[in-house]
Amino acid sequence: MAAQTTDRWLSARIRQEWWHAAAWTLLGLVLSVVAVGPSLYVPGKVATETAFRDARPCAGEAGVRDDGTSCLRTIRGTVLSARTVKSGKSKAFRVWLRPPVPAPADQSIDLDAHGDLSELVRPGERVDVTTWRNDVVSVSQGGVRERLDGLPDDGPITFIGAALVVVWSAALAFIAAFGSARRARSLATGRPVVPRVPFAKAAPLGVMAVPFVAAICAGHFWDTWTAVIMTVVIWALVAVPATILVLRWDREPSATPPPGKEVTVPAGAPN
Q: CA 92 to CA 113: how far, in whole Å?
């Protein structure tokens, strides 16, 4: 009776491991497809970054040259309101210009709440707003200039960082699938099962943080495609050894199962 109970438990455990392997494989395939999305945006973002970095001040009032290459336009306007507001969880120094002013300077402009311009700009004063295509690039007054965040040259590394998060998650899902299949085969043949680190234990912090840290570092030192390539290189130098170390962290020192943990081989199982 005890042997039959053990056989049923073992069969159920083997089926469970194979189901886990199938589920992890499906997740890995889905994540691989999802990773393609951000990757497709990278070439366009790199082209935009290149155009932005090559942009020169516009001649006269022209916003765009005949050849389609955008130039940097300076809009001089009068401040309608300027005050510190709460933007999400942080604060921003929000400036509105008195209409009429051309887009995109006709929208609110959020500056650093602790920047120099927050101490200088007041309603009724004149400021210079530099724009590129549909983005406000910078605001200046009296020789003090503040460059805004989230400009086109920040785009490619953000998308490649997001893609690498998903790629790493997919790789770990495939590793988890391999581990589940390995455990199923080991149980079926009576071999001892060497424990591994669970996927959830290996993934969250490093998978989310490392790609974006690598992207920030690469974006600080390089531009355009060089930044994208170096982001991948830096990520790989961290991700590959980190994954290997984490997956080996909880290995048993010996392949021999601990006393009292021997696996009973069901009748008819291959040796």
A: 5
Crossing angle for the helix pair 224-248 and 155-189, to the nearest 10 degrees: 20
Residue 146 half-sphere exposure toward CB, CA atoms < 13 A: 20
User: Does residue 71 or residue 257 have the better pLDDT?
Assistant: 71
Q: What angle do CA 116, 119, 122 make, to 5 degrees?
A: 125
Q: pTM of this prediction?
A: 0.69
In this structure, what are the phi and psi dihedrals at residue 139, rounded to the nearest 5 degrees?
Answer: -130, 140
CB distance 146 to 112 below 8 Å = yes
Give me the residues paired with residue 128 across strands: 76, 140
Helix locations, 81-137, DSSP H: 117-120
Percentage of the chain modeled with pLDDT above 90: 32
Q: Which residues contact 88 (CB under 8 A, 6 or more apart)?
A: none
